[in-house]
Amino acid sequence: MKIIIKIFLAGCTLVLFQRCSKYLDVTPDNVATLNSSFTNANETQAYLFGCYANLQALADVRRNAGFTASGEMFFPTDLADKTTLGGIGGDGGFNLMRGLQNSLNPIHNFWDGYNMGVKLYESIRMCNTFLDNIHVPLDVEPYNRKRWAAEAKFLKAYYHYWLLRMYGPIPIADKAIPVNASSEEVRQKQQSLDSCFNYVVKTIDEAIVDLPPAIQNAATEAGRISGAIALAVKAEVLTTQASPLFNGNPDYAGFKGKNGESLFPATFDPVKWERAAAACKAAIDAAVAAGAQPYELRVQGSIIHMSDETKQLLTLQGAFVDGWNPEQVWTLNPHYGWQYMTMPRVTAEAARNVFAVYSNFSVPIAQSEIFYSKNGVPINEDLNFDYANRYQLQVGDEANKFYIKKDYTTVAGNFNREPRYYSSVAFDGGVWFGSGKTDDLNPNYVNAVNGFASPPDKIRFNNTGYWAKKLVHYQSTPGDNSVWVGYPWTFIRLSGLWLLYAECLNETGAQGDAVVWLDKVRTKAGLQGVLTSWAQHSRNPSKPTTKDGLRQIIHQERRIELAFEGQAGWDLRRWKELQSVLSRPFQGWSVFNQTVAGYYQLNTVYQPVFGLRDYLFPIQEYDLITNPNLVQTPYW
């Protein structure tokens, strides 16, 4: 049996090496035994890149509950059991919002690696094995020995963090357990929540010392971990620990281990917000020192004419889809491969070829309405926004021609919105710059199509009439010969760090300082400062002057700025606000109706299901049987 286990582990290592060959453009040699993995520098570095392999897998948005269970978009329920999203189970993450999570065969099982999950404990074991053997090869330069070890430490810390964020208290795997260990040694217990967080932070701190502050040669090292990245992740980890889900949450007061020990902190600790604030400032300083700065549009391809309005929208969108730009603090190599699921049919060729664009990622109307009015306040607070009549029909005019097709009938709610609305969301009648059309003075502009272009088979369609425009590169052109301009997936942007810092400052009582960092994001988005906007345009002008009011503003600002980037689902969880978001039905327009009046009838697509128990993920029941030292996640 020991021989079989060793062969199995060696095989897993080989598979991981092969999977990561696209990650850092390194093709590792075949590995037959553990000893041969550390015979020289080349083999050792190849093993390190194997440790990176599942980091690449985490960049697949289908595996990210921050994307699939955020309420920002959904997959049509009548297609949920089909194979239209990259194979059986590819769309499974969206089922988290359908009440289909269970403990027998959990969705997004990252404990064991099933149902779009990743075997993170296996990845952690690889990191530990690497750290145990990095001293073996004699030809590794001292600098590389330290750096590679630091990278492995960061990776195992991040894999622990991903599990911690999902399950709460988890077993800490700081050392690789020998394959001949006894059953009792293998049956690890969950550590207390704060012990888990402290372990992740401590391990990241150990890694930072020996990581380069920034990647010097992007051509050969893009995707590897730097000190700036590690500090940014540390800031996120500490902010998560300080947040309501994990900081004195009464819902988990009775969560105890098998020996009766408390696994969740019983009381709220304000010092955690202070630690998080300090970490956010350190992360921002390190990112700036490494070259991070707000994105400036890098025009790609030939542009016939681009107005200032269009340039602003492409700048806001480009901060995410223009890969490896200075605003992206942490970006991973894997490309977002679902533009055809995200894009409307904006050309006649794409409308004819139903296989070119599926458009299944549907944005609920409620998500489109979190974006501000042009005055920089929520549309239901704006003194001059006719919120009650936002679903009335209105015709595109000259003043809005760069956002809405002139003389095209759409709804009033699409007018007079902030720039991030038009850069992030596509809707019926909305102007679409790109897809082969790069002249925004051309009156024959193509637009985000609507129900009239939906195919009759009702398989390749958008369920609401709203699309996540932000996730489609403007040069992508679907049709008979589709051209998809790929881009790497970004985990952390500079503006996201600004908003984390503003959140932490507000929670520590430093509202004035919080507003300064909040306004940096708003200025980048073309809006006035928060105090000015609320004083001049809101029905609740004093809202940003209180801690609770500013908290609401910061939360909404973060949901707007980072919309569709795989962050909202995690933010809403740690804020304990996801249950509120998913208690409302997902609504859209009647997209298969063939008249304008019929199309613009509100339609409830389905009612998402998300309860208290869904904030944390269940451990598979089989694991509880094989390891009796584990306790199930509360309410499961």
Could you explain how this protein is built, in words?
With 636 residues, the chain is mainly alpha-helical. Among the domains are: 1-191 and 591-636, Serine Threonine Protein Phosphatase 5, Tetratricopeptide repeat (Alpha Horseshoe), CATH 1.25.40; 337-486, no CATH class. The chain is built from 23 helices and eight strands. The strands form four sheets. Strands 1-6 form a two-stranded antiparallel ribbon. The chain has a two-stranded antiparallel sheet with strand order 2-3. The longest helix has 26 residues, at 142-167. The radius of gyration is 25 Å and the shape is globular. The model is unreliable at 1-32 and 83-88 (pLDDT under 50).
Give me the number of helical elements. 23
- Major sheet: arrangement of strands: 1-6
Q: Roughly what fraction of the amino acids lie in strands?
A: 5-15%
CATH topology label of the domain at 1-191 and 591-636: Serine Threonine Protein Phosphatase 5, Tetratricopeptide repeat
For the biggest sheet, the summary is: 2 strands, antiparallel
Q: Which CATH class of the domain at 1-191 and 591-636? A: Mainly Alpha
How many strand units? 8
Radius of gyration: 25 Å
Domain SusD-like N-terminal: 118-212
Keywords: Cell outer membrane, Membrane, Signal
Protein name: Putative outer membrane starch-binding protein
Subcellular location: Cell outer membrane
Tags for this entry?
636 residues; two-stranded antiparallel ribbon; TPR-like_helical_dom_sf; globular; 38% helix; mainly alpha; membrane; disordered N terminus; cell outer membrane; 23 helices; Putative outer membrane starch-binding protein; Serine Threonine Protein Phosphatase 5, Tetratricopeptide repeat; 6% strand
